[in-house]
Amino acid sequence: MLQIQEQERSRIARELHDGISQQFAVLVVELGRLAECRDLTADVLREQLRQLRAQSEEVARDVRTLSHRLYPAALQHLGLVPALRGYCARFAEREGIEAAFNADAGHSSLGKDLSLSLYRIVQECLHNVSKHAHASRAEVRLQCYENSLQLRISDNGQGFARHKMGSVSGIGLASIEERAKLAGGNVQVQSTLGRGTTICVNVPIPNRESGLRGGPLS
Q: From 3.65.10.20, 3.40.630.30, 3.40.50.300, 3.30.565.10, which CATH number describes the 73-210 domain?
């Protein structure tokens, strides 16, 4: 778990340095140039301010995305299904990759820890889809049975060879497996070159009397 935490912190640090920090640096430079220009016409000034506003809005969106990754407020207030549905919609809009979400979860409820683990698994899987799969479509499916729950994430991307599954670096499979293991479940990965990847997570549903409480699943 310490290794997983350090990997996540390292990723966030890279995003802050390579993304948000550089965006702010560009804004500072552009504002400095604008302040030093003394012969700008009103139209030129208006256009440059419009561009700076657009850049500022992009930085704000990136900050909101990073904040949501750190802890999803929708998960706490709305429950797992609405939070995942919203995340898939935002992912599709942001990455230009279709992300269908389907849930057949009855009226069960999950504890906070399990809900967060499943949410993080979906985040990691869709991150892999956007960065590694070269896919045009992904699907997240959540199915609830009497005593267990199945989370399936699939894509139509390039896949990878089964014998290389254990050596694939940078796609977070260890993190996904560890989260599932801590929830008492397991992970099955099916991937074929040129035919996409499917990650299936099966976890037991905690007893409602165990004291674990969380938002509604649906």
A: 3.30.565.10
